[in-house]
Amino acid sequence: MRYKQIITQLTQEEQFDIIHAHDWMTIQAGMSTKAINTKPLLFHIHATEFDRTGGNSVNSHVYAIEKYGMEGADKVITVSNFTKQKIINHYNINPAKISVIHNGISHQENTEIPFQKELHKPIVLFLGRITLQKGPDYFVRAAKKILNYRPDITFVIAGSGDMEPRIIEEVAALGIADKVLFTGHLRGTAIDRIYQMANVFVMPSVSEPFGLTPLEAMTYGTPTIISKQSGVSEVINHCFKVDFWDIDQIANQILAILDYSELANELSKNGKQEVQKINWEETADQCIRLYKQTLEII
Q: Which domain covers residue 11, as residue numbers?
């Protein structure tokens, strides 16, 4: 409420042509501004309540705010067709009102570390929030299956979140506590380092509106496996794609990458090249074009 009041005051003092609100936390301020200034409102959806909860225990208050914003906005922007379809199905929003603008990635010079993968035991990486949405439970169950055949592999879970205690307990119950490393939340060069150390990166998200971590992993040439239930699967091809719940297939794909060096090298080389074409500049250009189109129509 305080945020809404501050934004409302600022918009009475500043000149602007369009309102661009992001997710449910800012849309009420956006709607209030639109009511006062009658400027067109774009509501940019990066994740819905159905993504954050995996469709379980949806917060009715948050859902109501999201729906209110989608209905009141002049245009709705989603980060993927995956999210667009979810909004059509769960919020009953007119498809013609929704524009898809995929996310990008920053291409700064990567920090190289002196680490030779072939001289160390294989590392399989999960990096992200340890929450229901991100599917860490499927990651550790796939790890259990793999370790029955390849006990030399280390599985790294980099991140933090409300499911962390439960995942630690599950790892212990599966009898693989000595093979799974929890790093906690990583920052800066520690993230660069873990991407480069990993032989395989896995994103087993239950519902991922987009997903930047696979793009980050691929910039380091790390072979990548992603959930089909994601927006990023719409923009990359040189990776393995799997249903998040299919732990047998996740395990098979990880083993294939680790067992066949030619496959790993091909995914590494082609993935690194592919991700170079994805950038924030194109995302920004698409937003600007939508601004202009909206102003011409309204």
A: 2-104+279-297
pTM of the model: 0.91
Give the residue from 82, 83, 85, 67 showing the smallest Cα distance to 27: 67
Structure-token match 């499911």, residue found: 163
Q: Is residue 112 part of a domain?
A: no
Query: Are 167 and 205 in a shared domain?
Result: yes
φ/ψ of residue 100, rounded to 5? -100, 125
Q: Which amino acid is at 125?
A: L
Indicate whether 53 and 193 sit together in one domain.
no
- Model confidence at 265, pLDDT cuts 50, 70, 90, reads very high
User: What does the pLDDT read at residue 176?
Assistant: 98
My answer on whether 283 and 158 are in the same domain is no
Structure tokens at 132: 């229901």
**Tokens 């991922």 identify what position?**
208
Give the pLDDT score at 57.
Answer: 84
Mean residue pLDDT across the chain:
93
Decide if pLDDT at 97 tops 70.
yes
List, in order, residues 6 or more apart from 293 with CB less than 8 Å away: none
Q: How far apart are CA 239 and CA 264, in angstroms?
A: 10
Let me know whether 284 and 241 are in one domain: no
Q: Is 141 within 8 Å of 247 (Cβ atoms)?
A: yes
pLDDT score, position 14: 77
Nearest C-alpha neighbor of 215 from the set 193, 182, 238: 238
CATH of the domain at 232: 3.40.50.2000
Q: What is the DSSP letter of 179?
A: G
Q: Are 208 and 83 in contact (CB under 8 A)?
A: no
Length of the chain measured in residues: 298
For 235, phi then psi, to 5°, come to: -115, -5
Q: What does each C-alpha distance from 234 to 41, 102, 149, 241 come to in angstroms?
A: 27, 9, 33, 11
